[in-house]
Design goal:
two-stranded antiparallel ribbon; single chain; 13 strands
Length: about 325
Amino acid sequence: MKIAGIDISKWQGDLNFTKVREEGFDFTIIRAGSGTVPDPMFETNYTRAKKAGMNIGAYWYTYAQNTSQAEAEAELCNKILKEKRFELPIYFDIEDSSVLGLGSDTATAIVHAFCKRMESYKYFAGVYSSLSMFGSRLNDSELQRYAHWVACWSTSCNYPYPDSFGMWQYGGETNLIRSNQVAGKTVDQNYMLVDYPAMIKAKGLNGHTDSKFDVNRDGAVNSKDIIAEMKAIAAGKTDSQFDLNGDGKVNSKDAVSIMKNISASVQYEEQSAPSVSDKQDYTEYTVVSGDTLSGIAAKFNTTYQKIAEYNGLENPNLIFSGQTLKIPK
């Protein structure tokens, strides 16, 4: 299968998603953020794409220099995506030279750190990079558990691992397959090669309900499904719809399975709840030669992530002498 779609960020500005659909594009992958900064157009793009009836995925552009920073980026990504639904994977965009230049072992560990953290929050995780970078800057054979989105601006793509190759970015500013214009703007274009929406919905990931536990088919899994299951047990029903644990019987164990699913969802929400920090007061600090953001954070008993987010630094590794930073208290 080849389903056409686009990927976008703040750089596309005000995009008409109705026209995007009319031009034959079914899905969009929206940048949620980069480094420690949310994409300022994410909420608008998500809302408009949903209204236009598009399937949606998201990606996070990384500047992480180690696994701890990658996990922090995943935490922020989850904070932004929470309580939304996505039909496509959540991708970790690893293409920046500051990350790939760390060596294949470190870069691969960074991918694992982000993707595993996102998986712990019940997302379908994937990784994005170019065909050449997958082959030369990452230990790609170790990343095959994740959905792969491969950038290869050509008329074909010979990515060597077909089982994980579900998304092909075939063009951007350069496009050898069709015009690089979508709804009047230069936009990256992609083919979806596997049915991610069906896969993700079936697994109950990315904000979607695990349909197996939605006994009363109202689109949610809650106490009403426990009641519906108990009624089925009392009525002596044997339909497979009510045999939730697959043991060939319909009994109280199936009601317990629903309870466990609800409990797991509650634990997930509690675990992923964002912390609230006081950003009303700050101290100004002038960067001197030799400073790093993590070193400055240590001086003020805070984290480099908080400083970067407070100052809108997309790349926390790029600060310069004489720059004034606001340090949140």
